[in-house]
Each structure stands twice: as structure tokens, then as C-alpha cells.
Amino acid sequence: MSPTIPLGDLKREYAALRSEIDEAVGRVLRRGWFILGEEGRAFETEWAAYCGVAYAVGVGNGTDALHLALRAAGIGPGDEVIVPALTAAFTALAVSLAGATPVFADVDPRRYTLDPAAFEAAITPRTAAVIPVHLYGCPAEMDSIVAVARRHGLLVVEDAAQAHGARYKGKRVGGLGDAAAFSFYPSKNLGAYGDAGAVVSDDADLAAKVRMLRHGGQRQTYHHEMLGVNSRLDEIQAAILRAKLPYLDAWNARRRELAARYNAGLGDIEGLILPFVPDGVEHVYHLYVVRTPLRDALREYLMGAGVKTAIHYPQGVHRQDAYAHLGYEPGSCPNAEAVVTEILSLPLFPQLSDPEVAQIIRLIRFFFAMR
Questions:
Q1: Owning domain of residue 296
Q2: Does residue 242 fall inside a structural domain?
Q3: CATH number at residue 228
Q4: For residues 300 and 320, what is the distance between their CA atoms, to the nearest angstrom?
Q5: CA 310 to CA 263: how far, in whole Å?
Q6: pLDDT tens digit string along 206-262?
Q7: What is the pTM of this model?
Q8: DSSP structure class, residue 349
Q9: Strand locations in the chain, DSSP E?
């Protein structure tokens, strides 16, 4: 049967914002300017202010945001960049696109983000940068990660693709390292209706280089100062993001409310681990990820009952075929390898209803009661 409770539902979002979205798109169409125009510049200003940083540069997607931040900082062939083993493969692919080599470090078994001790153990004389990932909407342990990076003279680029609006010790992600990359893929907490991304930073030189790189290495039209790429945030997506940005905090609050409902309804189930929220962190629950050795059976049961789930992610990036040449053997990142066999993402999005959450809780409780 087709799921009656989806993992996410952008149709519901559009229905709630239809007038604002239609007006934003229409404004661009009436203006007739579609690349590097007023909407993009305005969104960059607004997004930088929201993140609490000086600069934001819109690019084509989140992968390009990471790639271009690294390149703008001079990271390239011969360099190593440490990334967590549990993340979307695009984190590592961005390192490869920059010409550098990803080095995978294990994750904290409760937080699922980069383990600071594993990060430090992975540093070699070739290490130039680290990319902590704020996975599922939970900020990484940035004080420890930044301290390690500073001791070793390493660049820190946050992968904040799943953490729009999250806070770490009172400060929003995006301003915790040297630069940060955001994806505005449609399903993100702040999503476009197509691909989009941004680099944010307080570093004026880095931001200026990203602006050049995204536009073919040009500062002036037809004068290419460096080998760049073609990765620009288009005006329609920028306008849509501007229309949605004022709702982001309320949407994140709703995500936390729904997570609290899950926590209250599932917290006493033996054999089911709920998301861990460290002290000093404001989680934004891009995903609500539970963990159980019965993951596959639970997922099959929920699907049969009309509830869509997903696995983020079924394999550590270090074990992906694309990186087989790096030679990571089973057991090289044991925490990540254990986590991927047990994690399950439950439906959670701002327009998810309280009765839907109650139904999911009832189903999960029944599943475990029958075991």
C-alpha cells in the first residue's frame, strides 16, 4: 500500500505558503532577470544576518558550497580533509571535487557527529582542514573540534546542510568555524524548490574568492582571473528562499514540538534509542532518527501500516564503492559502522499533524509490545 503518513510533504508546505511563493516567483518573472540579480543579493544579505556572520554567497547547491569554500581557502591536490564517516556522501565528494583527499574519522556513538578524539587521531602532516557535520540538525561538538583544529593549524568548514537555525551554546551554526556550507535542497529545514546552496563566513577574502569561483573565476565580466566553475544561486530560488526564511524559526520550533511528542510517547520502550540532545545545543530535527537492533523489521512493519521511513545512511561513506581505493577495512570506524545497521528516520516535518504522530507512536509501541 502507498504510505498514508509521508516522511516529508512539500505539497503541504506549498499549500500553506502559496500566495507568498507565487508572488515571489512572479516578481522574478516580471522583472525578467534570472541570474545574479536583486533577489540573490537580498537573500545573501538576509541569510548572513540570520546566521550571524558577515558574508553569504549563494551557489548552485550544498556540495558546491563545500567544494568552493575549500578551494577558496587554498585546499587542493596533496591536501587531506577529515570528514566524519557518518554523513551524506556529498560531504566527501566535495573534498574530492576540490582535488583533496577525504580522510574518514569515527563519530560519537550518541551524538552521531564527528568524535573530536577520532578527528585528532586522524591528523597527518598532509591534513589541511576538517569538515564537522551537524548531522540530523544536531550541532557537532564544536569547542573541542575547533580547539584541535587550532592546535594543528587546520581550516574548519562546517557542513550545516541539515542544521539551518540550530544553535551551539547560544550561537547559530554557520559562524562556529572559518566558513560553513548550507544546502537548500527542497527537503531541508529551509529549502528551495530546486537545488541551491550558500557559503557563509566572516572572512572577507574567502567570501570574495567564492564569489569569483562560482562565476567562472570572474570578478569582472569576461575577465577570468582563476579557474572557476558555473554554480550560481538563481533568482527564482533566491526569491523562494526569501519568502520562506521568515517562517524558519517557527518551523524549527514545530519540529522540536513534534520531537518532544515522540520522546514522550516512545521514551520508555526498551530496545529503542531516541535522539540524544547534548547540553548547550538547540537541535532543529531535520531528521528524527531512532536506533534499534530491530530496525529492518520495524521499518517493514511501519511501511505495511502506511508510514514512510528512511535510513540516513545505510553505509558509512568510508565503505562506499567510490572510496574503495582509499582502503578502509571493516572495523576502521566502528561506531559509524554499528550505527548504520540500526538507525531509522521517522516522519517529521512542520506540517505533520499531532494525530499522525500519535498514530506512529501507537504503531511503534504495538510493534515492540508484540516482541
A1: 247-369
A2: yes
A3: 3.40.640.10
A4: 25
A5: 19
A6: 999 999 999 999 998 999 999 999 999 999 999 999 999 999 999 999 999 999 999
A7: 0.97
A8: -
A9: 55-59, 80-84, 101-105, 127-130, 155-159, 167-168, 171-172, 179-183, 197-201, 218-220, 223-224, 281-282, 288-291, 343-346
